[in-house]
C-alpha cells in the first residue's frame, strides 16, 4: 500500500498490487486488515476467493481494482477467463505467504519424520544436520 501511495497510484491505473493467500479464510482476514489500514487512502480493493458464485460480477470489476487479495485458484481463473485481465502495471506482488506456508509445512514434515527416527546419533548425516538446525 505504501509503494502504491508513493507512486500516486489512482483508480485509473488498474491493478497495482496482488496479495496471494493459501486459504480463503486467511484471504478474508487479510482483506479485513487491508480495509482497516487503507481506509484513509483512495485505493480500491477486492477479495477474489473460490467458493462464491459472484464470478461474473468479479469479472466485470476486477480490472478497476487497485489491490487484489486472492487465492491462487481464483486468480488463475480470472487470468484464464476474464477478458482483458491486465496486471502489466503491477507494482507489488506479495507471495511471501506462500513461501512461509510451504516452509512451515516442510518444518512440520521434517519434525514428524525426525521424531520417528530411533536414535539421533545413528542417523544419516543430512537428517542429523536438519535436526540440529531446526531444534
Question: Could you list some keywords that capture this structure?
Answer:
135 residues, alpha/beta, Rossmann fold, 2 domains, four-stranded parallel beta sheet, 6 helices, 4 strands, 11% strand
Reconstruct the topology from this structure:
Layout (H helix, E strand, L loop, with lengths): L1 H5 L10 E4 L3 H14 L7 E4 L6 H7 L5 E4 L1 H10 L10 E3 L1 H20 L9 H10 L1
Parallel strand pairs: 1-3, 1-4, 2-3
Helix pairs in contact: 5-6
CATH topology of the largest domain: Rossmann fold
Large-scale geometry: globular
Q: How much helicity do the residues have?
A: 40-55%
Please count the helical segments.
Answer: 6
Number of strands: 4
What fraction strand?
5-15%
Uncertain stretches: none
**CATH uppermost class of the largest domain:** Alpha Beta
Fourth-tier CATH superfamily name of the largest domain: P-loop containing nucleotide triphosphate hydrolases
Round the Cα radius of gyration to an integer and report it: 20 Å
